[in-house]
Specification:
about 325 residues, alpha/beta, 3-stranded parallel β-sheet, 3-stranded antiparallel β-sheet, 14 strands, binds nicotinamide-adenine-dinucleotide
Length: about 325
């Protein structure tokens, strides 16, 4: 469902006249293409194919949501093996058909790992790949706005970093509520510590809650926000949320994770340091450790080589 919504969003935002849909299962694909044609978007050149070579040859921007979604009761990690194999195949296809791609956005879960696997196998420069990590921050903004009874735009700088799984780091020290630092409100009658703990849980389980409420994994928000990332990579717009990218700095080594970034025509660039209180930075370390554990599981499965050997598949790493 994300794919069809992305195509529609790309057309609505007029990002490009040329959109190609790819899915190995042709029937649903043709249905999406037919329906988008029925929208009558002016000037749109929409094509579709189940041939990956045709889809990717010389592609400049790729967004992939092509993998299994979670069902009720599943975590993102439950998708690990199957979707990591799809990511390895996608990476190999990028290397073969569009090594000069300008930006790849990986959505399918667990996105930090599928993004890393795609990056390693594709051979592209790390600045050319991002993962959709922003929805945890938009969910934090939404939960805080609901709690304080204000508009979402009055919650400034809502930020989560690290993994996109439930072990993500929800930062409070950087957020402002209608101009007031959130940390000054925490532990008061405006937001008790029990309420903050419960709110954080609603953020980390925001995706699972959509599955409970709608009977399926979220699709409108990932479609819209990933297209904003592409708009930024095209140089048109500023992307204002954290994005997932390859990180290799002291203490946060050789993972793809949600960071403070800038996305522009040259790709994704990340801040070298994440500012936050000791408690927030500690949460980030825990999230990073969880990512390392998952990364090492994928190495043990043989889907990617050991870290020291990544350069043999991708000289940019
Ligand atoms: N990063 C995020 O914030 C975020 C948010 C929501 C969902 N997701 C993830 O996005 C993914 C897609 O979710 P959805 O609701 O659109 O699922 P969906 O089942 O509706 O669509 C997935 C599509 O992928 C296709 N597919 C299967 N194998 C493929 C392959 N090798 N290459 C390309 N396409 C392939 C399927 O045919 C299907 O049409 C899931 O993994 C979900 O967990 C991520």
């Amino acid at each position: 469902m994300i794919g069809s919504n992305m195509a529609q969003t790309a057309a609505m935002l007029r990002l490009t006249p040329n959109v190609c849909l790819y899915d190995p299962y042709p029937v649903g694909l043709e249905g999406v293409a037919e329906e988008i044609r029925h929208c009558g978007f002016e000037g749109l050149n929409l094509t579709f194919t189940s041939d990956i070579k045709e889809a990717l040859t010389d592609a400049k921007y790729i967004v992939s949501s092509g993998g299994a979604p979670r069902k009720d009761g599943m975590t993102r990690e439950d998708l690990l093996k199957g979707n990591a194999e799809i990511a390895a195949e996608l990476g190999r296809n990028i290397k073969a058909y569009c090594p000069d791609v300008k930006q790849v956005v990986i959505i399918f879960n667990p996105a930090d790992i599928t993004g890393l696997v795609t990056l390693i196998h594709s051979g592209i420069h790390p600045s050319r790949l991002t993962t959709l990590a922003a929805l945890d921050s938009t969910r934090l903004q939404s939960e805080l706005a609901k709690h304080f009874g204000i508009r979402q735009s009055q919650v400034e700088n809502a930020r989560t970093y690290g993994g996109h799984g439930e072990a993500m780091a929800v930062f409070s020290s950087v957020v402002k509520i209608d101009g007031v630092p959130l940390d000054e409100l925490k532990g008061t009658d405006k937001l008790s510590m029990e309420e903050w703990t419960a709110l954080k849980k609603r953020v980390t389980q925001g995706g699972a809650n959509i599955i409970k409420l709608r009977g399926r994994s979220s699709f409108q928000s990932p479609a819209y926000v990933s297209m904003l990332m592409i708009a930024a990579a095209m140089g048109d717009k500023v992307f204002t949320w954290p994005a997932g990218c390859f990180v290799n700095i002291k203490g946060l080594e050789n993972v793809v994770m949600g960071m403070e970034t800038i996305i522009d025509k040259d790709g994704v660039h990340y801040a070298q340091e994440i500012n936050g209180s000791e408690e927030d930075v500690e949460a980030l370390k825990n999230s990073y450790n969880h990512l390392v554990k998952m990364r090492d599981e994928v190495i043990a499965m043989g889907i990617i080589p050991a870290v020291e050997e990544w350069g043999s598949l991708n000289p940019n790493l």
